[in-house]
Specification:
5 domains; Gyrase A, domain 2; alpha/beta; 11% strand; 3-stranded antiparallel β-sheet; single chain; 15 strands; 5-stranded parallel β-sheet; 54% helix; Rossmann fold; binds arginine
Length: 566
């Protein structure tokens, strides 16, 4: 639709004298009113006229010059209706020309977006929150990639803190009793739980752990650091299994430990800005001037050790220096709102001018079903089990619906994982979501499998056309009048991608996918594609192919596979 919008803006500039950039073309709230609309309010002041009068006058003037677009004044709006044949030929032509790049662009060229995503903690199972961060963050990164931004996805692994002192202690005491190799995360979790059970009775545990962490922070390359390294490697191996299944890669994997060498300079820089003070032996930044009740940001504890916030401050300076970002997005759960408010608060107090570019991209919680739905150890849900179960359930549905499917196991994985990912991206990210197995996997609801199934049905129509040798005739574009809503929807995809990027909101793409899938299903159940007048079949096939391509492109941005058959 951008091509039409540009034409309208140019035509409106001609008749109003206003610069094209000031003219906002909208989507009419009611699609039956038209494909695009121009609200005339902006002109009222200069023209000293009521908007409806302006609309009527301009519509007449525009109809003199516009070809293939009809302007109709409706109250203060001018609604535009694009000639159906022109609409079909233009939009389908754009999709055909751009292929998998349709919806993308290059307006991001020269701009850099840093995305902090996933960021699980070593020696613990990756949580559902980390899954959300991974899936939402990776989608945000892909959306920006498609628009030509330079993007840097950083996995900020939680590999630092007193808990590693504790784990080393636990490993030294009881390591021989657990099997670290075959299931490291479960073994480490068990050690951690045992440590906390015994810590109360045995004060030497806490003393040892404090010494261990001090040694770790000292940088000495001895037993403690070696053990910590091993823990990190074992954990990363487990995380990588999940990343592989999700198809997510990172540009940088930088644990909090990476920033250790930068901590002193970071603290000095903040001190030099004159915003620090001592409070009960600790070094803090008072933030009450930013927001009345905001607690201070703690930079260094009494014992000299640093904190999560100190390391995030070091990281944000490092990122700014390295990438000079236009936006630095932290895709982290809403439960860390205060942490990021404090991070930005410190930057504000330092009068750092790029502070507004640092954004917490918060998301809500995902509630998993209770009980035997998931394997639990203590209170922990293992993501691998969730993905396994999803693939298994998808396999059952496929076996029922399509028993002859060739590579069924591979497709079951794509559908199962796709279902989990899509479910995570379905609602506005700040909302909490429920995970209900039956709803996540159904082929008919607002789900990933439904979108994938729509794509596969389009693919099947194309295969049948190929086999029947149909689709060679010149298309009768006017015959696609009955598909206008679908075509307009396809035409809006590029602006949906731009909006999703600006709002860091992948759910705008999921919504588009679901609406497009619904409209496509409605259209092709009412209109046979094959075996019509050859010019009609050709036109419908071109639409089917374009829709399939756009749908696959949208799913790719979300990180959901688009199998040809399922
Ligand atoms: N590891 C942290 C956690 O699990 C999340 C880190 C998010 N990223 C950041 N730069 N703070 O809570």
């Amino acid at each position: 639709m951008q091509a039409f919008e540009n034409r309208l803006r140019a035509a409106l500039t001609d008749v109003t004298g206003l610069p094209a950039d000031d003219l906002r073309i909208e989507n009419p709230r009611d699609p039956s009113m038209g494909d695009l609309a121009f609200p005339c309010f902006v002109l009222a002041k200069a023209r000293k006229q009521a908007p409806p009068a302006i609309a009527a006058e301009l519509a007449d003037a525009l109809n003199e010059t516009l070809e293939g677009i009809e302007a109709v004044a409706t109250g203060p709006y001018i609604n535009f209706r694009v000639d159906r044949a022109l609409l079909a030929e233009t939009i389908i032509g754009e999709i055909e020309a751009q292929g998998a790049r349709y919806g993308g662009g290059d307006e991001g060229a020269g701009k850099t977006i840093v995305v902090d995503l996933s960021s699980p903690n070593i020696a613990k199972p990756m949580s559902v929150g980390h899954l959300r961060s991974t899936v939402i963050g990776a989608a945000i990164q892909r959306i920006h990639d498609a628009l030509g931004y330079k993007t840097v996805g950083i996995n900020h692994i939680g590999d630092w803190g007193i808990q590693f002192g504790k784990l080393v202690t636990a490993l030294d005491r009881w390591g021989a009793e657990v099997d670290l190799e075959s299931d490291p995360i479960k073994a480490l979790l068990a050690l951690y739980v045992r440590y906390h059970e015994e810590e109360g009775e045995d004060p030497t545990l806490a003393e040892q752990s404090a010494r261990n962490f001090q040694e770790l922070e000292s940088g000495a390359d001895g037993h403690v650091r070696q053990t910590w390294k091993r823990l990190t490697e074992l954990s990363m191996r487990e995380f990588d299994k999940i990343y592989t299944r999700l198809g997510v890669t990172f540009d940088e994997v930088r644990g909090e430990a990476f920033y250790e060498p930068y901590l002193d300079a970071t603290v000095e820089r903040i001190e030099a800005a004159g915003v620090t003070e001592m409070s009960e032996g600790a070094l803090i930044v008072d933030l009450s001037s930013i927001r009345k009740k905001m607690p201070p940001c703690l930079l260094r504890k009494t014992d000299g050790t640093t904190l999560y916030a100190t390391r995030d401050l070091a990281a944000v300076f490092h990122r700014h220096e390295l990438y000079d970002f236009d936006r630095c997005l932290y895709v982290v759960g809403g439960d860390q709102r205060l942490h990021f408010e404090q991070l930005k608060g410190v930057l504000k107090r330092m009068e750092i001018d790029w502070e507004p570019k640092v954004e917490h991209i918060a998301f809500g919680m995902m509630k998993l079903p209770e009980g035997k739905m998931s394997t639990r150890t203590g209170n922990v849900v293992f993501l691998e089990d969730v993905l396994d179960r999803a693939a298994e359930e998808a396999g059952k549905i496929i076996a029922e619906k399509n028993p002859d499917l060739a590579n069924a196991a591979e497709i079951a994985e794509q559908v199962g994982v796709g279902a989990v990912v899509f479910n995570d991206l379905k609602r506005e990210r700040e909302k909490d979501i429920q995970f209900v197995w039956e709803e996540v996997l159904t082929f008919e609801g607002e789900t990933g499998p439904y979108a994938q199934y729509t794509h596969a049905r389009l693919a099947s129509i194309l295969r049948k056309a190929e086999a029947a040798g149909e689709g060679d005739a010149d298309p009768d574009w006017a015959a696609l009048e009955d598909a206008a809503p679908v075509i307009v929807r396809l035409g809006r995809f590029p602006s949906v991608v731009r909006s999703a990027a600006a709002n860091a909101e992948p759910s705008e793409i999921t919504s588009w996918v679901l609406t497009a899938a619904r409209e496509l299903n409605a259209w092709y159940t009412q209109h046979r594609v094959l075996g019509q007048d050859p010019a009609v079949t050709s036109a419908r096939l071109r639409l089917v192919a374009a829709a399939k391509s756009a749908l696959a492109g949208a799913l790719a941005l979300l990180g959901v596979a688009a199998p040809e058959e399922m």
